[in-house]
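>> received
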Amino acid sequence: MCSNRLIFQAPLTRRSRRVVMIAAMAAVTLVLFSLLSIAHAQPAQPGQLPAMDAATRTAVVDSITAAIDSIYVLEEPAKRIVAGLKKNLADGKYDKLTDPAELAQRLHEDAQAINHDGHFRIFALPPLDPAVAEAERDEDPADVERRRRWYKTLNYGFKKVEILPGGIGYLRFDQFSHGDDAFEAAAASMNFLANTNAVILDLRNNGGGSAAMIRFICGYFFEDDTHLINWDIRAENKTVQSYSADYVPGKRLLEQPVYVLTSGNTFSAAEEFTFDLKNLERAIVVGDTTGGGGHTVAGYTFDFDGFRMGIRLPYGRAYNPENNEGWEGVGVVPDIPVSSDIALETAQIDALGKLIEKEEDEEFKSRLQWARLDLESRLNPIEMSRNEMEMYVGSYGPRRVYVEDGSLYYQREGRSPYKLEPMGDHLFRVGDLDYFRLTFDMDKSRAVKVIGLYSSGRRDENKRDDG
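>> returned
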């Protein structure tokens, strides 16, 4: 999760810059500007910035370590990082680095070697044009409108919502957006799922975003505002408690089983959402362990002659208030660990199984079993040899089964042909007809009757024409 803030220091002389920056950071007195100047600027590459001297190099290390020492979320790792970078400086390990971009990369690598953090980053930037800074303070309305239209085009990350077989609701959203329009898109998606029997939330491609959206969507899954998580902010010596929204537009989804699909790309805010629902036993997590980014982050820059040094610095730690455990560095471990490629089908099968167990109406149960068998067969495809296919070839009244181009086909008189895909013992899926299947009665190694099966429970059959 990213907080939109940074330090911007006015240009200073080399002699005064170091003292002012360290004092400012030690007191944690921050001048806050929009993060756009970092988000829109590409980190400098080696050779793009003017060379720095030894005094500037020392000032860079002092500024970066002062920020880490004062703000980094965990005190003990912060002290180790600071001590390690300062020792490297004193030992002369950075003496040959005159390129700011190369120094930034080396500082980043050394810090990560001491304490890995997926949100942490040190980078060099070109100097900020004062005209650009002024423009960002008074942003062009055309740029604002262009950005609004673009986010609207993406539907604020809410990419797909549908009803799957068995009345299972599916929602894929790839970011936790913020703002009134984003909340309206979220509410529309959640209300579409209101009448489902179970809900699957696909976060396999969700890299994070706004904590406010976490609280909003969680509000649909709890009857009352519910304590989700705690955040410790070390620099401010305070703990922030996060609760689900006490009001959401439309129906809450309180009875439906909930599944969250994850992958190694599930990160930051998407991990908190997963972590919250799992710990509160409101969701079953299916897929791969998530990326392990459990800290919230802010951006800071330091101005030097001819370049800026930037740092993305984690400042808040998320954890379960019941046991003090978070997911930083370890990720959220799924309840059903499977490859993320088959997480959706796996969640569907599990959801259908739970619905079948509690269903008392036999006809409805049969429809649920029909859907589950289709999914199970797709996860475990069956290969057939040419000789095996030949067992079914023949005419059955108005029906015909034949082999063409190495595949088995079915065709009813006057209708289009469909490819047959094996689902089990003498049972076949018929093309994309999800309501119809074929099975065969066998006499040793030869089919003697074809039987049409329908999802409604109806069936019809025809004997082989030649007996």
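>> The two ends are 70 Å apart (CA to CA).
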